[in-house]
Design brief:
Layout lengths: L5 H10 L13 E5 L4 H12 L4 E6 L2 H15 L5 E5 L5 H14 L5 E4 L10 E2 L2 E2 H28 L3 E6 L17 H5 L7 H22 L2 E2 L2 E2 L1 E7 L15 H12 L3 H13 L8 E3 L2 E2 L4 H4 L1 H21 L8
Parallel strand pairs: 1-2, 1-4, 2-3, 4-7, 7-10, 10-11
Antiparallel strand pairs: 5-6, 8-9, 11-12
Helix pairs in contact: 2-3, 2-9, 4-5, 5-7, 7-11
The structure holds NADP nicotinamide-adenine-dinucleotide phosphate.
């Protein structure tokens, strides 16, 4: 089923238990973005419980990050494992500073969980795009490409695999993405007058999925398989504060639908941990309920593949402007 099915959605949300993670992350260094709250915080808590050597919370507020670190240390009874590093996806410069620090200070980097994201129905700009596109797509891919060399270097040093996992969403199934026909899609999405904000989050999650497939296709394959496993995880619908300051009727129905249909935050975060385990068969895949899932019909269509190639060229031009030479990291 590659279209949204409410039956499949409800079965998944209400009847399928998500397995509690037990695979150890012993000796591993892990970065989790957007980890001061929500899914990122609970995933980071699992990594610490599962014996990771070092877990870096990449957050835009050091204060909120420190509170999260304290909560993890108290619940896991492990100290000296969690670090809090500043990174704001609203700013390309902040992403570059963060990746410089990673490259300078970390000898090894085993797992990157690119989880941070925003959802809003209001149109605002940040850097050169609509803000959600900057945060969830462009800066997220900028960070991915800047961290690829360290992930590849680590894979070579340990003679094993490293993992780059993105938090995607089932909501990509809900968009027909008419903007994909524009000559320059990023510019089209940055036009306030024609912005369809009710569909924006669905579009950016589809873009994230297209870009993770392209990146997975482009990264080198060795005889032993992929040295960096790249996948895109759907956590399901999960109780978090992703919609900050809901307006109008949403204030009333959001908490009700969360109670009725959504997974508890910790349960949702198990899907991120599963993605981070980096099984070979997850490379380039959309993961749903902790297994390889079926993405949207558009994603699977020839039109989806062509859109992926066209949009990758647009992204490439953008990232090269931001950080000249970055494409050589692939
Ligand atoms: N909740 C769901 O049902 C659901 C379903 C599918 C996918 N997802 C995805 O799951 C991921 C995590 O969301 P969540 O539901 O856990 O929401 P959340 O509780 O609001 O967490 C979002 C995290 O992203 C961080 N963030 C936002 N803007 C940022 C920026 N400019 N720079 C750095 N960090 C930033 C937030 O930091 P602050 O606290 O400082 O704002 C927070 O730590 C997102 O990618 C979301 O799209 C969520």
């Amino acid at each position: 089923m590659s279209r949204f099915s409410s039956r499949k959605f409800l079965h998944s949300q209400l009847c399928l238990p998500i397995p509690y993670p037990t695979t150890k992350f012993t000796d591993k260094t892990i970065i989790v973005t957007g980890s001061n709250t929500g899914l990122g915080l609970e995933a980071a808590r699992h990594f610490v419980r599962l014996d990771a050597a070092r877990v870096i919370l990449a957050v835009r507020s050091i204060e909120r990050g420190k509170a999260a670190a304290k909560s993890i240390e108290e619940s896991t009874h492990r100290s000296g494992v969690v670090d809090v590093w500043e990174m704001d996806l609203d700013s390309y410069a902040s992403v570059q500073t963060f990746s410089d620090r990673v490259n300078k200070e970390l000898d090894l980097l085993h797992v990157v969980v690119e989880n941070a994201g925003i959802l809003t129905y209001n149109f605002n700009m940040s850097e050169e795009d609509e803000r959600q596109i900057t945060v969830n797509v462009v800066s997220t891919m900028l960070l991915a490409l800047l961290l690829l060399p360290k992930l590849r270097e680590t894979a070579a040093k340990i003679n094993g695999k490293t993992v780059l996992t993105f938090t995607g969403s089932w909501m990509h199934l809900l968009t027909k993405f008419p903007e994909h026909k524009a000559e320059n899609v990023f510019k089209e999405l940055a036009k306030k007058e024609s912005a369809r904000m009710m569909d924006r989050y669905q579009i950016l999650k589809l873009l994230g999925l297209l870009f993770s497939r392209e990146l997975a296709d482009l990264t080198r394959v060795s005889e032993k398989g992929h040295s960096i496993i790249i996948n895109n995880v759907n956590p399901g619908a999960v109780i978090t504060d992703i919609v900050r300051n809901p307006e109008g009727l949403r204030r009333i129905y959001a908490p009700v639908t969360q109670k009725l249909f959504c997974r508890p935050t910790e349960e949702g975060s198990r899907t991120l941990v599963h993605g981070a385990e980096g099984a070979e068969e997850t490379h380039g895949q959309y993961l749903d309920d902790c297994k390889v899932g079926v993405p949207s019909a558009f994603f699977l269509s020839e039109e989806g593949v062509q859109t992926q190639k066209k949009m990758w060229k647009e992204l490439e031009a953008k990232l090269e402007r931001i950080h000249p030479g970055i494409m050589q990291n692939i």
